[in-house]
């Protein structure tokens, strides 16, 4: 079911659920759209049918879920990803970092969680600021390259969509910010896929 049109996705799932004796649904898609996860969560809550999202948009972790939902997603939340990244930063003694986000939904919660991790730690984290990017109205990436150069930390935590990540890394490469000495951690529940980001 790779048609991400909400109406057709809901109708097809409801047809399947009403025509067969089903104890649960395992769902995989190639859409990488959070809307798929939201639809599956809604259907699970309304029908009480367990749904397991294993790939694509269905595996984009939602928090919180609908009341009564039995929708399980096999993916890691943004908070879990950040916890692992901060353990890596601590292990390598990389205590100075900057945060870069776009206006992608969830960025405010992401920033809040970075603050929680750094404020409640005995590690002497040196948070060198937040850069929130607005990628609209910059067709040639001139403003983006300038903004990325202004970030003083070599360790960068990036929260954005996959499409935005491709644009940001292209601009970072053009600005000379992807070679030796720069470490980028890309965080987000929607970045899965088999394709690699630009070098």
Describe the structure.
The protein is an alpha/beta fold. It folds into two domains: 68 residues, no CATH class; 110 residues, Rossmann fold, CATH 3.40.50.2300. Helix content is 38%, strand content 19%. The protein has six helices and seven strands; from the N terminus they run H-E-H-E-E-H-E-H-E-H-E-H-E. The strands form two sheets. Strands 5-4-6-7 form a four-stranded parallel sheet, sandwiched between helices. It has a three-stranded parallel sheet with strand order 1-2-3. Strand 1, helix 2 and strand 2 form a beta-alpha-beta unit. Helix 5 packs across helix 6. It is elongated, with a radius of gyration of 19 Å.
- CATH class term of the largest domain: Alpha Beta
Distance between the terminal alpha carbons, to the nearest Å?
32 Å
As a whole number of angstroms, the C-alpha radius of gyration is 19 Å
Q: Give the biggest beta sheet.
A: 4 strands, parallel
Q: What is the CATH architecture term of the largest domain?
A: 3-Layer(aba) Sandwich
- What is the name of the CATH superfamily of the largest domain? Response regulator
The percent of residues in helical segments reads: 25-40%
What proportion of the residues form beta strands (DSSP E)? 15-25%
Give the helix tally.
6
- The domain tally reads 2
Give the uncertain stretches in residue-range form.
none
Mean pLDDT across the residues is 86
CATH topology of the largest domain: Rossmann fold
Overall shape: it is: elongated
Structural class: alpha/beta
Question: SSE order, as H and E?
Answer: HEHEEHEHEHEHE
Instruction: Let me know the number of strands.
Output: 7
